[in-house]
Prior knowledge:
Structural class of chain B: mainly beta
Largest sheet of chain A: 6 strands, mixed
Largest interface: A-B, 23 and 26 residues
Low-confidence stretches of chain A: none
Oligomer: heterodimer
Radius of gyration of chain B: 13 Å
Mean pLDDT of chain B: 93
Number of helices of chain A: 0
Number of helices of chain B: 0
Helix content of chain B: under 10%
Order of helices and strands of chain B: EEEEEEEEEEE
Shape of chain B: globular
Number of strands of chain B: 11
Distance between the termini of chain B: 37 Å
Strand content of chain B: over 45%
Strand content of chain A: over 45%
Amino acid sequence: AQSVAQPEDQVNVAEGNPLTVKCTYSVSGNPYLFWYAQYPNRGLQFLLKYITGDNLVKGSYGFEAEFNKSQTSFHLKKPSALVSDSAWYFCAVMGRRALTFGSGTRLQVQP
Amino acid sequence: KAGVTQTPRYLIKTRGQQVTLSCSPISGHRSVSWYQQTPGQGLQFLFEYFSETQRNKGNFPGRFSGRQFSNSRSEMNVSTLELGDSALYLCASSPSSGAGGEAFFGQGTRLTVV
Lengths: 111, 114
């Protein structure tokens, strides 16, 4: 069975600084990995996905993620954080027609 | 292009009642999935429908059921509500069923069972 782990419940970063939200995965076979953001009173917004190809995936709102097969990681990054990036972030792996989500990381960007 | 629409946005029900939630997917999307989000259990997969057929089901009791109509709209039903069913129910649509395709989520229905 596939799973993802987000080791940090919360990440705090100052506006303008780079941010990283961590995710590790466990799957058999090739992983299909996703990042979603959840803003207050909103559903999940798709940010990016890794299916195959380049290890650095670029997504929406300036986010990118680095796939590392040897470390089974798929960390979300952004070079310069904005206060509006404050949200919950969920890493997910696609299994048999269903997404398995991590527990989520709350990102707080301070002005 | 309109996004995924879920109705109603908020519901308050009493234990023992039943409830029906509705989801209209993005036009042209044929796959609809449902997820339950709670503070304790996080996001959990309920089921997926594609072309009116249930393709996959998560580990939820039979009180949770769903269906999909020919226009791809989907409904989810929960019977004999329990306090623990209080959650945000999210619907997601995808163009096709299977791995690789991103899912587009609605804003959710917040169900409170009292």
